[in-house]
Amino acid sequence: MLTLHVAEHSPETAVLADGATIAAVGPHQELAAAHPSARVRRWPGILTPGLLNPYGPELLEATYHPDPREADELGTGPIGGERAAAIFRADPSRLSASARRGVQRMLAHGTVAVAGELRARPVMDAVGRAGLAVAQRPPRLPGPPSLSPTPLVLLPPLAEGAPARFAVFDVQNRAELVARGASTCVATVIAGRLLYRAR
Asked: How far apart are CA 93 and CA 88, in angstroms?
């Protein structure tokens, strides 16, 4: 099934997805005219190739992402350092669910690829199930591990025949995305599947 994704502030880079593959990239009006039967998804902001987060091991293997039911005890934000290590030592089985929640948080920040050597099987499984690409780390890491690292690392431009993998951010342009960060994500698509959509 063909799906045409178009964002309000980047109509010149609309994406026509045919299942898990990009069938075409171009101006929205041209793609809509050429494929009138395609389902159309309209988004605010700009459509981008999505982000590479270079901190895969740090955010998924060395960080604990609490279950909402643990909010009273642990809060809702990611827990790192020795506190996370103590949680995993006390109950190694918590790594699997934490990794799944961590992947969901990454998707909510427009992440479509991670970098760094993942060693824990539950983490690799969570990354694989989501369809996140795994890439090599940049030679220099931008700063402390974060779901919205500074600077943001955008993947190469979208192209016909490439995997239908991209993210949409509710900003007017890339400069605003850099200034406001990845928390402005409103949609993340991997293999043609809408894996995150802001409420």
From this structure: 8
Show the tokens assigned to 44.
């605010």
Q: What's the CA gap between 31 and 2, in Å, rounded?
A: 11
> What is the residue type of 102?
G
177 burial level (CB within 10 Å; 0-12, 13-18, 19+): buried
Which of 154, 175, 174 is closest to 165 using CA atoms? 154
Alpha helices per DSSP H over 35-165:
56-60, 71-74, 81-90, 94-107, 121-130
pLDDT digit string, tens, across residues 35-91:
999 999 999 999 999 999 999 999 999 999 999 999 999 999 999 999 999 999 999
Q: Are 36 and 73 in contact, with CB atoms under 8 Å apart?
A: no
The rounded distance, in Å, linking the Cα atoms of 6 and 99 is 31
Rounded CA gap, 77 and 75, in Å? 6
Which residues, including other chains, have CB under 8 Å from residue 98's CB and lie 6 or more apart?
60, 63, 64, 65, 66
Tokens of 125: 């499984």
Q: What is the pTM of this model?
A: 0.95
CA nearest to 109, candidates 2, 10, 181, 27:
181
For the CA atoms of 123, 126, 128, 133, what is the dihedral angle to 10 degrees? -80
